[in-house]
Amino acid sequence: MKKPELLVTPQSVDHVKALITAGADAFVIGEQQFGLRLAGDFSVSEVEEATNLIHAAGKKVYVAVNALFHNEKIDALGEYLKEMQRIGVDRLIYGDPAVIILCREQGVTIPLHWNPETTATNWFTANYWGKRGAVRAVLARELSLDEVLEIKENAEVEVEVQVHGMTCMFQSKRPLLGHYFLYQDKVMEIENRKENRSMFLHDDERNNKYPIYEDVNGTHIFSPNDMCIIDELGELFEAGIDSLKIEGVLQTPEYVETVTAAYRKAIDVYFDESEDAYEDIKDELLATIEEIQPAIRPLDTGFIFKETVY
């Protein structure tokens, strides 16, 4: 068995440096107008600076171009892809097939990761896009462990699974917050909403608070809990899952660094020592994360152990 890649989402170039030290293997970065729900907004020059740092450390950089692209954005996307080719990033993360066509037209040869968010739910479709240039499928977060293992067993491409952090439950291309504030006649709040990522939707019936923010891609609403399966990684290791992702969006840099170091230790102990050694420390690693977990963000295991009803 080979070690899975530990994939993280840095918020800045300085955060990249810290996460290299914490033990990350690969980094998802990009620019807001092309990538969805990025932890940090990296300009082209910052992508280049971060790529140089990441490559110097022997790590990999993946640039997100997984937004939905209307016709008016195609020319800008094409120029952006050429810049990524020039910089030498390792992979591109896409959902819209327009990226495939543009790569062909622009002579961009960067390998692709297929990430359609909630619809990457079976190995047949993953293999379909694999035949069209994708080398990895980023699985939907709404899959159970059994479904993940079945996909990995049959997939002809790499498989990436999220193991920590929040999940996007809803996205609209519309500026829903802006519409709401306009309805409330709160002009000042409209001006500030794009930079405000500490807003919540309150559900009194379920006693949940859903993080919500708005950017150039529309409005995004996230899960009320953070997924954490640091103590349940054994079967993913055994199955040979290629990449484990820590989603750091809306978290503090320090939080992401601590969580990355904990997962790094879990992976290294399992593969460099033994499965029993991992079993001995997994509760301690979970406790480390629980100590820094914000009270407003309870931990759970996401959909991994939920029963699928057909």
Describe this structure in words.
With 310 residues, the protein is of the alpha/beta class. Helix content is 40%, strand content 21%. Helix 1 runs parallel beside helix 2, helix 1 (13-22) runs parallel beside helix 10 (253-273) and helix 3 (74-87) packs across helix 4. The longest helix is centred in the last third of the chain and has 21 residues, at 253-273. The chain is globular.
Walk me through the topology.
Blueprint: E1 5-8, H1 13-22, E2 26-29, H2 44-56, E3 60-65, H3 74-87, E4 91-94, H4 98-106, E5 112-114, H5 123-130, E6 134-138, H6 145-154, E7 158-165, E8 168-172, H7 176-184, H8 187-192, E9 199-203, E10 208-215, E11 218-222, E12 226-228, H9 234-239, E13 243-246, H10 253-273, H11 275-292, E14 299-300
Parallel strand pairs: 1-2, 1-13, 2-3, 3-4, 4-5, 5-6, 6-7, 7-13, 12-14
Antiparallel strand pairs: 7-12, 8-11, 9-10, 10-11
Organism: Lysinibacillus contaminans
InterPro entries: Peptidase_U32 (IPR001539), RNA/ubiquinone_mod_enzymes (IPR051454)
Protein name: Peptidase U32
Summary tags:
310 residues; alpha/beta; four-stranded antiparallel sheet; 14 strands; 21% strand; globular
